[in-house]
Amino acid sequence: MRKDHHGRTARLELDDQSLREWDAVVLDSGPEEIILDRSAFYPGGGGQPPDHGVLLWQGVQTRIVGVRKGDDLALIPAEGDPIPPAGTSVSGAVEDDRRTALMRTHSALHVLGGVVFRDYKCLVTGGNMEPLVARMDFNLPEVPPGFKEAVEAACNAEVEADRRIDVKTLPRAEAFEIPDIIRTATNLVPAEVQDVRIVDIVGLDTQADGGTHVASTRQIGRIAVAKIENKGRGFRRIRIKVVN
After folding, report:
1. pTM of the entire structure?
2. What is the CA radius of gyration of the chain?
3. How far is 154 from 146, CA to CA, in rounded Å?
């Protein structure tokens, strides 16, 4: 399979994270899934939920409420909505507010992970996000005094620094030569993946990652550390909010 495809579908969002509208052709369809030849719907992964949006065709709208990865990239239509037959030309549109909020949130988590690794040498053990709220877990045995305030201040200093966020793909061997390229306690990049997508917050954090991101840290907005939770056995959960 080509690195820019999932099954028969070209994944447009991997190359252009600002893309919100595009034209496509339906390859297969049914009441539970629609397969396009081209799609900018992010299918979810790494804690980032899938996109929502619509398909417009022949004066009709089909709402897309999720994406499922199988042999093909399957768009999940809203129950009861009309389904475009195979061969239909459609216009796809990602719900901009949701995608942009998720991009800001995902980039905020990378800033958080970069700050905690740099300042406390802790690895990520888990994470999840919804638009503008997220949590990240770390192997932090003890919470130092002033930790919550220090982490929030350091994250927002990186936001104000307006660091560029670059995305590139490298051969696996070359990618794994980058120091600390895996910031999780477990390497989550499957052995069969030979081309590794890299997200680089220049000067702060370089990670293997498949999600969508804003172009610079200032586009994130302010990061508020809402809560630190003890998850037992030396693990701590940091909950954040992304605000304007």
Report:
1. 0.93
2. 19
3. 12
